[in-house]
Amino acid sequence: MQPHHDETPHVPGPSLWPVGFAVGVVVLLVGLIVSWTAVVIGAVIALAFAFLWVRDLTAGTELAHAPEVAPEHAVAATAAGDDEAGEATAPATDRYPRAKFLELSTLGLGGVIGGLVTAPAIGFMVAPAFLKQGTKDHNIGPLTDYPQDKFVVATWMSDASQGEVSRRTAFVRNNGQINGQPSFTIISNHCAHLGCPVQPNGPLDEKDTKKFADVTLIPTVSIAGFGCPCHGGQYDTEGNRTAGPPVRALDRYSFSIRNGNLYLGKPFSVSHVDGSGSGAKIHKWAFSFPGEHVNGIESWLYPVQPPH
Ligand code: FES
130 partner at 20 to 30 Å CA-CA among 100, 106, 168, 276? Predict the structure, then answer.
């Protein structure tokens, strides 16, 4: 028997859609390292080419229609078929090509299995880094505990339920007022090289240590910047790098004042600071991990940051 013409395997012609789809996926994955903008662009490219690919595959899959045959001719043709093959031939009916069905069902099943495998991996391994992160504003004591123009070493627990392991440190200086608004310089003690704890370059006035809830405040006598014990990184009193391997200035904290108390807000990164005190111009960037450039072409080389 000759195969029916509808049984001819459907072989799609050469197409660039799979290549475009692959390019979109690559851009999306690279975007996860580089920036959210690239993630969105990659997703759009992948979806657009996936649509074109699927449309190409499904083109020409309309039900194959047998040509209209007049009833008397159909009877004659059936009789002729009986004579030649020795058995009855089924009348022509609408059919869906078997090869096409297998092709699409294989692709669809592969997509479903791929989704079932990758969705849990994304859900359990990647998503937690982006969910329930962030910091709450933390009360670090009354304004009266921060004498003007002096740094105070403030430590507090970022998560009291985890105990001392969550203790954080910042150097806080009351700059007085500017335009009627209180001004504070609040510098993180995380070295901008590899994150070691930076120390004040000067003596502390430990006898005047104050405690407030989980907060400890130790005034400094007089300091000449900050130094890192790990690799010798040095910073001035605005947190600008002055020597050693750090690639940027020390991070800072935003702040607010409520009911006469100073509250720490979110940390942010700083490339450098012009000026000093209440008149300083802070070149502020999104929070970045130690060792990362925040500006310039080098800043393109680091992965997307989860919320902090
Ligand atoms: S971690 Fe501070 S200089 Fe290396």
Answer: 168
